[in-house]
C-alpha cells in the first residue's frame, strides 16, 4: 500500500446520523487523514464536533468552509437534494470528493454533476455504496464470480428499517424530500444487484402501501415498497423496502443460481449469543444500519483516502451512482403511475 504518513486534510458537510458516524471514523479509525473542519446548520452538532472530536473550525456555510480552509478533500453527507451543487462547488475548487448516496434527486442536476466530475479526471470522486466493502457481500461476490452457484436466475434485496425509527423518519421526511421509498431504502440493493449480475435493468414495476403506517400518506411517503426488475441478461430481481421491522434492522440479499443459492444477512444477528429465558430462545438483533455496516463504512472511507494517495479512481464510479438512482426512480415512477416502466439509460 502507498505510504499514508502524509495526512489528507478533509472537511465534512453534514453531521446528522450518518455524517456524525463518518466524522467519528475519520478522527478515530481512518489512517492518513485529518478532519480539520466541519459544516452543519445545527449548532449543537457543530458543538459536538468541537468538543467530542476536536474539530477546531466549524461552519454553517459549506462554501465558506471550502474557500477558507486548506482542504484536499471533502465528505458530503448533507441532505440528498444538495449533493449535486456541493459536489460541483468542491470539484471546481480542486478538491477530491466523497459523496454519500444517493447522488441527488433531480436527474438533470445529477447529470450536470457527472459532467463536472468527468471534466476533472485527476480528482478522485467516490460514491458511498459501502455494502460493496462488507466482507459478507465480498465473499458472496467471489462465490458468484467463481461460478460456484452457476448462472444467476433471480435476486431479492430487503432493506427494512426497525419500526422504532419511524418517528425519526417522519421528522426527516417532513423537513426534506427523501426521494421516495425506493431511492431512500433500496438504492443499495439496486447497486448490489447490478454489481453481482453485471447486467442492467430494462423494465421496472413497483407497488407501494401504507398498511403499517397510514400516517405517512400525510407527508407523501410510503411505508412499504416492492418492485420487480427485469434485466437485459434475463435475470429477475425483487426489491423490498420498508420501515416496519419489529425485530430490528433487516438487510438481506438472496441470490438464486442455476447450481445453488446464497443468502447474505438472512437473520440480523447482533452477535453469536443465543439467550434462553422466560421469552423462549432469543437471538438479539441489530437495531440500525450503522451497527450492521460499521466496518464497511470504515473500509470504504479508507479506500477513498488510499485512492487519493495513489491518484487512482475508485471502482465505484459516478456512473454507478447515476444508474442506481435512475433505476430506483423508475421503480417509484411505476408505483406512482401503476404502469410498467421501460428504463432508458440516456446518461
From TrEMBL:
SUPFAM superfamilies hit by this protein: Glyceraldehyde-3-phosphate dehydrogenase-like, C-terminal domain (SSF55347), NAD(P)-binding Rossmann-fold domains (SSF51735)
GO molecular function terms listed in the Swiss-Prot or TrEMBL record: nucleotide binding; oxidoreductase activity
GO terms, biological process: NADPH regeneration
A cellular component term, taken from the record's GO annotations: cytoplasm
Signal peptide start-end: none
Pfam families membership: GFO_IDH_MocA (PF01408), GFO_IDH_MocA_C3 (PF22725)
Domain GFO/IDH/MocA-like oxidoreductase residue range list: 137-263
Keywords: Oxidoreductase
Annotated Gfo/Idh/MocA-like oxidoreductase N-terminal domain residues: 9-124
The family this protein is said to belong to: Belongs to the Gfo/Idh/MocA family.
Protein known as: Gfo/Idh/MocA family oxidoreductase
Provenance organism: Ligilactobacillus ubinensis
Amino acid at each position: 500500500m502507498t505510504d499514508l504518513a502524509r495526512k489528507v486534510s478533509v472537511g465534512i458537510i453534514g453531521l446528522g446520523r450518518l455524517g456524525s458516524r463518518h466524522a467519528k471514523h475519520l478522527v478515530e479509525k481512518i489512517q492518513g487523514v485529518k478532519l480539520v473542519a466541519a459544516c452543519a446548520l445545527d449548532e449543537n452538532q457543530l458543538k459536538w464536533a468541537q468538543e467530542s472530536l476536536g474539530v477546531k473550525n466549524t461552519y454553517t456555510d459549506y462554501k465558506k468552509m471550502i474557500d477558507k480552509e486548506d482542504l484536499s478533500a471533502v465528505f458530503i453527507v448533507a441532505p440528498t437534494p444538495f449533493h449535486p451543487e456541493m459536489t460541483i462547488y468542491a470539484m471546481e475548487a480542486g478538491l477530491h470528493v466523497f459523496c454519500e448516496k444517493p447522488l441527488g434527486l433531480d436527474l438533470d442536476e445529477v447529470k450536470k454533476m457527472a459532467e463536472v466530475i468527468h471534466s476533472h479526471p485527476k480528482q478522485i470522486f467516490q460514491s458511498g455504496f459501502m455494502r460493496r466493502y462488507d466482507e459478507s457481500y465480498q465473499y458472496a461476490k467471489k462465490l458468484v464470480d467463481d461460478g460456484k452457484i452457476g448462472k444467476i436466475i433471480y435476486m431479492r434485496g430487503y432493506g427494512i428499517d426497525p419500526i422504532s425509527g419511524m418517528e425519526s423518519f417522519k421528522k426527516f421526511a417532513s423537513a426534506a424530500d427523501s426521494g421516495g421509498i425506493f431511492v431512500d431504502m433500496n438504492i443499495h440493493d439496486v447497486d448490489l444487484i447490478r454489481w453481482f449480475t453485471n447486467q442492467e435493468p430494462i423494465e421496472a414495476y413497483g407497488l407501494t402501501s401504507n398498511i403499517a403506517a397510514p400516517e405517512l400518506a400525510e407527508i407523501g411517503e410510503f411505508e412499504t415498497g416492492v418492485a420487480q426488475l427485469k434485466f437485459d441478461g434475463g435475470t429477475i430481481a425483487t426489491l423490498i423496502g420498508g420501515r416496519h421491522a419489529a425485530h430490528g434492522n433487516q438487510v438481506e440479499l438472496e441470490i438464486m443460481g442455476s447450481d445453488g443459492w446464497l443468502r447474505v444477512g438472512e437473520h440480523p444477528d447482533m452477535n453469536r449469543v443465543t439467550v434462553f429465558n422466560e421469552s423462549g430462545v432469543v437471538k438479539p438483533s441489530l437495531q440500525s444500519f450503522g451497527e450492521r455496516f460499521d466496518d464497511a463504512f470504515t473500509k470504504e472511507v479508507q479506500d477513498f483516502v488510499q485512492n487519493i494517495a495513489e491518484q487512482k479512481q475508485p471502482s465505484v464510479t459516478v456512473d454507478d451512482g447515476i444508474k442506481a438512482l435512475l433505476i430506483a426512480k423508475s421503480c417509484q415512477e411505476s408505483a406512482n403511475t401503476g404502469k410498467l416502466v421501460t428504463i432508458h439509460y440516456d446518461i
